[in-house]
TrEMBL record:
Residues covered by the Arginyl tRNA synthetase N-terminal domain: 3-91
Record PROSITE patterns: AA_TRNA_LIGASE_I
Protein's UniProt name: Arginine--tRNA ligase
One Pfam family, short name: DALR_1
GO BP term (any one): arginyl-tRNA aminoacylation
Residue window of motif 'HIGH' region: 127-137
Organism, scientific name: Idiomarina rhizosphaerae
UniProt keyword Cytoplasm, yes or no: yes
GO cellular component: cytoplasm
Domain DALR anticodon binding residue range list: 464-580
SUPFAM superfamilies: Anticodon-binding domain of a subclass of class I aminoacyl-tRNA synthetases, Arginyl-tRNA synthetase (ArgRS), N-terminal 'additional' domain, Nucleotidylyl transferase
NCBIfam families: argS (TIGR00456)
Family: Belongs to the class-I aminoacyl-tRNA synthetase family.
Length: 580
């Protein structure tokens, strides 16, 4: 409906331009907002105020002209001018009812899918395989996953890329430690990667001989030495298994098939350097191969280097990222490349995207976007740590979430069996961790707070999961009793109307999530939907409503609410529960 209204306004502006009321050459950006006070209608615009100056007109008079120029239509039941020139629009009930019916009759809730499907390549999670995944890997994995789910739902082909770090100096250190233990005929256990890494790092720091061997093994590994590759493959296989366990617990749609690691581009890196040289973009600086772009300068005005090859011949993240960008467009056919990497990498990606275009690693009108995100913080205002002050392993965090959720459930009266309680605790605990993150603005830091995320009050996963079970319980109580699913929808009560207006926003919100890569828009929508249903449920009798037409209508509104809550949570990667 928002798109239809925008089209009506565009036609009105076009008419006013033709009449000379608005300068023909003036570009117009039509913006519609949803008023907080519903007495002001369903949509509002300050278009008249924005256009008054170029039109050399009084804003209120221009607002009247815009309203008069809007074509005759069945979308709107009312248009009002408020204050100095705000225009308020009220959608007709017939349009609203038609949209609700279409949503109920559609498996995809009548969401507008892309007329032309794009191939969207999404880079997310991408942990370093030297150690187990920790809390710092949480945001990329779940934000990227939610956005990828929404893009797929809206009709695009999504290719997930898990650009894991599996190459470089630290792997030489790990291989040297594995070799030393082999030579000592010592048994070692790779199942605890964190412990293994710390032991290797200690040897690296304490023994110059060990450190030299580690550096030698890096060179041998990168040159394809069979022995080094055997040890490396053993370590990588265990690391990826750890990652997959975490992804499965989180409900993240990444698999081993989505892994395209740094090492996968190793053979392409000499070609990247040669291509940059042929393009005349390389400059040698203190033995290193660099690219200097005029667009990026330091505080003193000096060009900032993009180092693509170290003095000793080694390659860097920039080199691998250039190879990955080329692969993602030219081999995978990506129309839009999305990167979910923390905000501290913003300059890096700005430089890489600019260089990729300039050097021809990508061509045409491909869209390249880095979607940065903030840090998970502790209550002390510092990056979140474990109780002992170390980095919290993600698997341990999820264990703690499930434990706390089970304690919470056991404090409540429930008829769930012990096994059912365990399953509910698993869903509630992990969903709480995910939702607490997804409900925050992607670009902001947020404070990790167990007490807040596991409460049944406010904008939390437990609240929404319970809201779904509450709606679902209506149909449990209804049982096999039939109701007329073709009955008319009645919106006489203000709570019915408020719920209906929220439901039809689902399509609009999903497109906002895709356009801005902001899952918190969907979280806010679902929270508001649950709140409006609660008000409707308390004020409008459903199963004991004697008027059959009203009863059928309210059952349809309840059913659609359940469908939207379930689909919305699924797009966030959160499973619903039938009982809690």
């Amino acid at each position: 409906m928002k798109e239809q209204l925008e089209q009506l306004l565009a036609e009105a502006i076009g008419q006013l331009k033709a009449q000379g009321t608005i300068p023909a050459e003036h570009s117009v950006n039509i913006q519609l907002d949803r008023p907080r006070d519903k007495s002001h209608g369903d949509f509002a615009t300050n278009l008249a105020l924005m256009l008054a100056k170029p039109a050399k007109s009084n804003p209120r008079q221009l607002a009247e002209a815009i309203v008069a120029a809007i074509p005759e239509n069945s979308l709107l039941s009312k248009m009002d001018i408020a204050g100095p020139g705000f225009i308020n629009f009220t959608i007709s009930q017939d349009q609203l009812k038609g949209q609700l019916t279409a949503m109920l009759n559609s498996d995809s809730l009548n969401v507008d899918v892309a007329e032309e499907s794009k191939t969207i390549v999404i880079d997310y999670s991408s942990p370093n395989l030297a150690k187990e995944m920790h809390v710092g890997h949480l945001r990329s994995a779940i934000i990227g996953d939610a956005v990828s789910r929404v893009c797929e739902f809206l009709g695009h082909k999504v290719i997930r890329q898990n650009h894991v770090g599996d190459w470089g100096t630290q792997f030489g250190m790990l291989l040297a430690y594995m070799e030393a233990l082999d030579n000592q005929s010592a048994e070692y256990e790779l199942s605890n990667l964190e412990t293994f890494y710390k032991a290797a790092k200690q040897r690296f720091d304490e023994s110059e001989e060990f450190a030299d061997r580690a550096r030698q093994l890096v060179v041998k590994l990168q040159s394809g030495d069979e022995y080094c590759l055997k040890l490396w493959n053993q370590f990588i296989d265990v690391s990826l298994s750890h990652c997959q366990d975490v992804y499965d617990r989180l409900g993240v749609k990444l698999t081993r098939d989505d892994v395209m690691a740094e090492s996968a581009y190793n053979d392409k890196l000499p070609g990247v350097i040669e291509h940059l040289r042929e393009k005349g973009l390389l400059t040698e600086d203190q033995g290193a191969q660099c690219v200097f772009l005029e667009e990026y300068k330091g505080k003193e005005g000096e060009p900032l280097p993009i180092i693509v090859q170290k003095k000793g011949g080694g390659y860097l993240y920039a080199t691998t990222d250039l190879a990955a960008i080329e692969y993602r467009q030219k081999q995978l056919g990506g129309d839009h490349l999305m990167y979910f990497v923390d905000a501290r990498q913003s300059l890096h990606f700005d430089q890489i995207f600019t260089l990729a275009r300039k050097a021809g690693f990508v061509e045409g009108d491909i869209q390249l976007d880095h979607y940065g995100f903030g840090t998970v913080m502790g209550k002390d205002g510092k990056p979140y740590k474990s109780r002992d002050g170390g980095v919290t392993k993600l698997a341990d965090l999820l264990d703690e979430a499930e434990r706390r959720a089970l304690e919470l459930l056991q404090q409540k009266t429930t008829d769930l069996s012990e096994e059912q309680q365990k399953r509910v605790a698993e869903v509630v605990g992990i969903s709480s961790v995910k939702y607490a993150d997804l409900s925050k603005n992607r670009t902001s830091d947020y404070i990790f707070d167990w007490n807040h995320m596991l409460t049944f009050e406010g904008n939390t996963a437990p609240y929404l999961l319970y809201a779904y079970t509450r709606v679902n319980s209506i149909f449990d109580r209804l049982g096999d009793t039939a109701f007329d699913r073709d009955a008319d929808i009645i919106l006489d009560d203000e709570r019915e109307l408020a719920l209906a207006n929220q439901l039809v926003r689902f399509n609009e919100v999903l497109h906002q999530v895709q356009d801005k890569a902001m899952p918190h828009f969907l979280c806010g929508f679902l929270f508001d939907l649950a709140g409006r249903f609660s008000s409707f449920y308390e004020a409008c009798p459903i199963l004991n409503q004697e008027d059959e037409a009203l009863r059928n209508s309210r059952l349809k509104l309840s059913m659609l609410t359940a469908n939207v809550l379930k689909q919305g949570l699924e797009l966030l990667g959160i499973p619903t529960l039938e009982k809690m």
